[in-house]
């Protein structure tokens, strides 16, 4: 749906493309926006629309309960819950911003905000943030929602990548069980995968249908950045030795050691779970929230555990937290921020985290005993919270195009063995910088 564009400007959607995107969206996503007249009733009551992307049963319940609690406590500022979808949110927001009908309070992820932030669609929240909320969320998390020095999204839930392992196979192999305090190095991880590969069992299954974020975020542990910003603000793609450690490890596990399954490369995370339960894979690298699916779907007696991702020079990994933003067109930004502050109070942030099986960004919420329990390895995830950093591509204009056209096919071919490291570097760097240059003239 992208059209030709003038040099020096990122591509924009045509009117035909916008209408096509709108036609493809669920009807609920296209409810008319609230003009100033609709937001304030004749009785003086303000109504704000909150578009949530919650989809899991517990998460939906928590979000709707919190909206109801706010409405009972604030009769003059009512919040209308609107259901959105992760699969269509970017196009839906683009359409609603273009039409002046965006929701007032917007649930999204930080890596989806750049175009809307730079395009003036999202309000600058810097001066609106309550001091309590600003203090509670650490600076490393605020960086994920900051663009050109302005905060456009409040990060509130985040997800580390972890290794979900078959405990019985792990114990039988004799390999050391890693902990957040003493994780495996990438070399130890390679050795563990080799030792866990026995008979029809692969040591690891990498679900890499979407390989880019996994590769870039895990590469932070070895000092990898890929994107390097110069003093003039322009971004350059590089693929240095520190950037290559993680992709080379994955490639060699599939093509050299044969300790990783080739068939899972095209799978999503959920697709690997039947094979994991059947014993075909001893470990699967997944997001922390997959514990919910495993807890619900694993056969009776299946013993699994959560291990930290491997460590390079650090245990760091990149994340793109879920965020809450306010539309620039919203005439009641202070009231909208008051609702966000309520939603993200420490007790409520805990409820949202438990509903999504994710980690809260708030330091007070992280102290809650429910998020430090041994059951379902909550404590393992909580121990990793301090190592989560802003994903490398967070504020890079042109990243979606680089990811879709350059990095995704390049990494897929490299991991499958179809191309070598030099060919991958040429694509990511030479072809990639040509893409980014169009956004930076």
Radius of gyration: 22 Å
Lateral arrangement of strands in the main beta sheet: 2-1-3-14-6-15
Distance between the termini: 23 Å
The number of helical elements comes to 19
The counted number of beta strands is 16
Instruction: Please summarize the sheet with the most strands.
Output: 6 strands, mixed
- Model regions low in confidence, pLDDT < 50 over at least 5 residues: 1-38
- Oligomerization status of the protein chains: single chain
Q: How much is the average pLDDT?
A: 90
**Beta strand %:** 15-25%
Give your account of this protein's structure.
The chain is α/β, with parallel strands linked by helices. The strands form 5 sheets. A 6-stranded mixed β-sheet has the order 2-1-3-14-6-15. A 4-stranded mixed β-sheet has the order 8-11-7-12. Strand 1, helix 3 and strand 2 form a beta-alpha-beta unit. Helix 9 runs parallel beside helix 11 and helix 18 runs antiparallel to helix 19.
Descriptive key words:
441 residues, four-stranded mixed beta sheet, 19 helices, six-stranded mixed beta sheet, 15% strand, globular, alpha/beta, 16 strands, 41% helix
């Amino acid at each position: 749906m992208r059209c030709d564009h003038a040099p020096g400007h990122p591509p924009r959607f045509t009117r035909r493309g916008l209408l096509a995107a709108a036609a493809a969206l669920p009807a609920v996503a296209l409810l008319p926006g609230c003009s100033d007249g609709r937001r304030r009733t004749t009785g003086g009551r303000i109504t704000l629309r909150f578009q949530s992307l919650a989809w899991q049963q517990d998460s939906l319940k928590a979000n709707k309960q919190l909206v109801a609690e706010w409405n009972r406590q604030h009769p003059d500022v009512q919040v209308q819950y609107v259901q959105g979808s992760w699969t269509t949110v970017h196009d839906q927001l683009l359409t609603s911003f273009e039409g002046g009908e965006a929701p007032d309070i917007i649930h999204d992820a930080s890596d989806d905000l750049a175009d809307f932030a730079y395009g003036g669609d999202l309000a600058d929240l810097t001066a609106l943030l309550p001091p309590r909320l600003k203090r509670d969320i650490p600076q490393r998390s605020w960086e994920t929602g900051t663009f050109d020095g302005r905060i456009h999204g409040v990060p509130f839930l985040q997800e580390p990548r972890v290794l979900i392992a078959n405990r019985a196979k792990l114990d039988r192999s004799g390999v050391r069980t890693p902990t957040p305090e003493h994780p495996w190095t990438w070399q130890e991880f390679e050795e563990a995968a080799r030792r866990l590969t026995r008979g029809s069992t692969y040591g690891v299954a990498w679900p890499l249908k979407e390989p880019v974020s996994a590769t870039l975020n895990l590469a932070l542990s070895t000092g990898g950045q890929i994107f390097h910003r110069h003093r003039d603000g322009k971004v350059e793609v590089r693929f240095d030795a520190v950037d290559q450690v993680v992709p080379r490890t994955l490639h060699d596990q599939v093509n050299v050691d044969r300790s990783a399954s080739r068939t899972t490369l095209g799978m999503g995370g959920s697709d690997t779970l039947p094979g994991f339960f059947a014993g075909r894979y001893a470990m699967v690298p997944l997001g922390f929230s997959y514990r919910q699916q495993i807890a619900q779907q694993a056969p009776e007696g299946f013993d699994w555990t959560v291990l930290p991702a491997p460590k390079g020079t650090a245990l760091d990994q990149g994340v793109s937290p879920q965020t809450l933003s306010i539309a620039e067109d919203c005439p009641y930004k202070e009231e909208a921020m008051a609702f966000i502050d309520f939603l993200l109070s420490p007790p409520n942030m805990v409820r949202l985290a438990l509903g999504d099986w994710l980690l809260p960004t708030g330091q007070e919420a992280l102290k809650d005993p429910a998020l430090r329990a041994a059951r379902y390895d909550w404590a393992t995830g909580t121990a990793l919270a301090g190592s989560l950093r802003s994903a490398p591509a967070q504020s890079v204009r042109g990243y979606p195009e680089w990811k879709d056209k350059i990095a995704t096919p390049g990494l897929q071919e490299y991991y499958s063995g179809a191309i070598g490291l030099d060919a991958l570097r040429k694509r990511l760097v030479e072809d990639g910088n040509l893409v980014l240059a169009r956004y930076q003239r």
